[in-house]
Design goal:
Keywords: Heme, Iron, Metal-binding, Monooxygenase, Oxidoreductase. This protein has 405 residues and is of the alpha+beta class. Helices cover 49% and strands 9% of the residues. The longest helix has 31 residues, at 230-260. The structure holds protoporphyrin IX containing FE.
Length: 405
């Protein structure tokens, strides 16, 4: 390959987003501490090797989250975001995280299993009915995204009639990223204001009449002797809606897509559902819902031969790290539902390790247990699909289903 043929990392380009993996490999092999300069976009750095990212995200003393998680400068100020744990450093991060972590203990998460399974079954009923009536089933919209939306609404105890609003909010937040945080863009400003307005009213109502849900628990919680403010609680709502919905839906959709690319492994999973938990992590490794998020250097940091100055945005390309041959060997790009590996970065690592990882895996496990038992030939029609346009997350807008009988 000549240098001009080399696939290039360009997070804004639809061709890169369709298949980012050759460009990631190019970065890992030839430019692992990449300085990205592109007309019309802010300059930033990008790490692509597993070890470099693993070490950086576990070093919050040098790599801060407080300037936001994208490569845009001042995204927090521009968006008027409430402070969320994912954009805080220790020690405040540690304290806030300990409050929210109580809502996500493995025990608490597992107690939701019967409820989620019942919901998953009802969605399969629905897609079967649609398919049998000759209608096109959109796996992503009709099934995958519905599950995390349901779960979040349960956590927040939101009435059924209000639940449909979640997805447009998430779409608006994603659109916001793609428009360079032009908050006038694509009705995003309106959607964000609507979301904050909705949760603001909910917080007021739960302060007056607390229930058993997570928002009520947060209104009662104390940090260093003080109650959390509405603004703090809005930050939690924001991170759960923005971080928990799309990511989990895309894990489910990508899993169906990956199995459709290897029917022998799909059959094996149908025959041996005990392999599902292992397969899910392999899906996440190969098609990481979060492809990359940024940190900001708090002082000059040397990685290999390169020194990154203080105050620079550095993208952690999780999607690249998870396919690094240095970590996973020569078969890193191949699906292997039995693959055993001690570490991956789909949920990051260190202080910001995903708090919802148990919940995400529970939802995806139930989705695959039920779906493969009832529709063992389910696949996807990539020619009719539409990918999400995002420099940070990898996923779908539409993904038509095939093989439903
Ligand atoms: C497959 C699904 C999911 C993926 C791939 C995922 C991925 C991630 C990643 C990569 C981070 C670290 C962000 C960073 O590097 O700065 C993170 C943090 C977080 N995630 Fe998830 N997530 C998923 C599902 C969920 C769910 C279901 C919830 C909760 C309902 C959730 C809540 C959070 C929270 C609260 C944080 C911030 C933790 C902190 O800053 O201490 N996530 N997630």
């Amino acid at each position: 390959m000549t240098l001009t043929d080399a696939p290039t990392y360009n997070p804004f380009d639809a061709a890169f987003q369709a298949d980012p993996y050759p460009a990631y490999r190019q970065l890992r092999d030839h430019d692992p501490v990449h300085r990205h300069e592109q007309e019309g976009a802010p300059a930033f750095w990008a790490l692509s090797r597993f070890d470099d990212i693993w070490n950086a995200v576990r070093d919050s003393a040098n790599f801060s989250s407080e300037q936001g998680l994208t490569f845009y400068p001042d995204e927090i100020g521009q968006l008027g975001l409430a402070p969320t744990i994912v954009m805080l450093d220790p020690p405040r991060h540690t304290k806030l995280r300990s409050l929210i972590a109580k809502g996500f203990t493995p025990h608490r998460v597992m107690s939701m299993e019967p409820l989620i399974r019942e919901f998953v079954r009802s969605r399969i009923d629905l897609i079967e009915t649609k398919a049998r009536a000759g209608e096109q089933v959109d796996l992503h919209q009709d099934f995958s995204t519905q599950i995390p939306t349901f779960v979040l609404a349960e956590l927040f105890d939101i009435p059924e009639s209000d639940r449909m609003q979640f997805d447009p909010w998430v779409t608006a937040l994603t659109a916001l990223q793609d428009s360079g945080f032009d908050i006038q863009a694509l009705g995003a400003q309106h959607a964000v204001a609507e979301m904050f307005g909705y949760f603001g009213e909910l917080i007021t109502a739960r302060r007056a009449a607390p229930g058993e849900d997570m928002i009520s628990a947060l209104t009662q919680a104390e940090l260093e002797g003080e109650r959390l403010t509405d603004w703090d609680i809005l930050g939690f709502c924001f991170v759960l809606v923005a971080g928990g919905n799309d990511t989990t839906g895309n894990l489910i959709s990508h899993g169906v897509m990956l199995l459709d690319g290897d029917h022998a492994q799909r059959e094996r999973l149908v025959a041996e559902p005990d392999l599902i938990p292992n397969a899910l992590v392999e899906f996440l490794r190969l098609e990481s819902s979060v492809q990359g998020l940024a940190r900001t250097t708090l002082r000059p940091v040397r990685i290999g031969d390169v020194e990154i100055p203080e105050g620079e945005k550095v993208m952690m390309l999780y999607g690249s790290a998870n396919r690094d041959e240095r970590e996973y060997g020569e078969s890193a790009d191949r699906l292997d539902i039995t693959r055993q590996f001690p570490r991956h970065l789909a949920f990051s690592s260190g202080v910001h390790f995903c708090i919802g990882s148990h919940l995400a895996r529970l939802q995806a496990r139930l989705a695959f247990e039920e779906l493969l038992a009832r529709q063992p030939h389910i696949g996807v029609d990539l020619s009719g699909s539409q990918r999400l346009n995002s420099a940070f997350t990898r996923g779908w807008v539409h993904l038509p289903a095939t093989g439903i009988r």
